[in-house]
Amino acid sequence: MPPAPRKLLIVSPHFPPFNAPDMQRVRMSLPFYRACGWEPVVLAVHEHWLDGDMEEDLLATVPSDVRIEKCRAIPRRWSRWLGLGTLGLRCLPFIFWRGCRLLRKEKFDLVFFSNTQFITFPLGIVWKFLFGVPYVLDFQDPWRTDYYKRPGSRRAPGGWKYQFSRFQAWALEGPSVACAAGVMSVSPKYLEDLDTRYRRFAGKPSIVLNFGASRTDLARARDLGPKVQLFRREPGLVHLVYTGASGPVTPHAVEVLFDALRSFRDLSPARAARLRLYFVGTSYAPAGLARPSVMPLAEARGVASLVEEVPHRVGFLESLRLQQEADVLMLLGSSDLAYSPSKMYVYYLTNRPILGLVFRGSVMEKLLDELSCAHMVRFSEAEDKGAAHAQLRAFFNLALDGFKPGTQPQRSEGLFNERYQAEELAHRQCAFFASVAVTPRPVR
After folding, report:
1. Cα–Cα distance between 311 and 286 in angstroms, integer?
2. Which residues, 6+ apart, have CB-to-CB distance to 59 below 8 Å?
3. How far apart are CA 216 and CA 214, in angstroms?
4. CA gap 61, 41 in Å, rounded
5. What are the phi and psi torsion angles at 108 (to 5°)?
6. What 3-state DSSP class applies to 237?
7. Of the candidates 221, 236, 198, 260, the residue with the CA atom closest to the CA atom of residue 388
8. Do 207 and 241 reside in the same domain of the chain?
9. Is residue 30 part of a domain?
10. Is 87 in the same domain as 142?
11. Domain membership of residue 374 as a residue range
């Protein structure tokens, strides 16, 4: 008789039907936890208390027999008067009390904080003290960061909210990490930063696990009817598509791309006229509130006629559908060298040609080199961009010529299947959980 599954409480304030990047690891892993010996229970905020666009189609990707415990949050219309706009602060007391009730009534072996509402992480300390249940933290983004102090970085937002956020990270990250049973991260750089900052992090169990991608998601996306009519197929046109946040996230890469596009048009105007660059879902704001961040850069560099932007947030599955319709997919790097966009794994699954415009020495460069799936254009902030522009012009010609045989990189299929598919990543998560979980002590 197989042993009873161990019980896992997952704290993920965002959850379908709400679409947010920080719940994707949990959402893709849920179908596989039981087969790995873990019974998941998700603690999330009810969609009634969330602000933003809902993606009802995502509900079909969550197993119907997985238990979802939903709590409330302080309404944004009230909290904004107190300056408590972030979901983490609005839901914190409700997540805490619902978690206490669950941990008091049921025997859980581990708590897994998988989100970017970092203010929820210290709840692990309290629950560990009260109920003896260990916890794992998932760093999908850096909590405490010196990004704005680095040379060439954009100016810090400023204001008391930003300063409060910095103080919160400074005060709470260290204790949260010190008391954790283990730490997971999408980037090795985040673990290196923790090791540099905290002596008590040395020797703590940790693992780097990327988000990966699900073939099931891709199949569901193909079955959807179009919600965003991005382009029409016209003879001779080549459509290059980028999906996800841009502008402030990847300004240097966008500028290099547009400068190369302008020089290509100057040299070959008739061929350049066949290119169309699309940037979709470039902000997290809903339709009607989103402001373009890419078009101002295109206008400043004189290539606006070749560029289109859909700035409002687009559903996850809708993004996958658009990616599969593209002639070329664009991956743009960030001056934050730890940046590791989860979209690169979905891009890989589409089997479309990929343009990777990356910073030298970045995590993104290393991953794309390993996967061998992209035409790579490398640059750094300090160097002259002439070589990068020349490589981009050569890529535009390749795309316009239809990528003749022998011009595509040899993809690392075995490596991708082993490391970056959702099912395999869920197995590795569960192996890590088993290595750090201990039997809870009696409730106080």
Report:
1. 9
2. 16, 17
3. 5
4. 16
5. -105, 145
6. coil
7. 260
8. no
9. yes
10. yes
11. 216-416
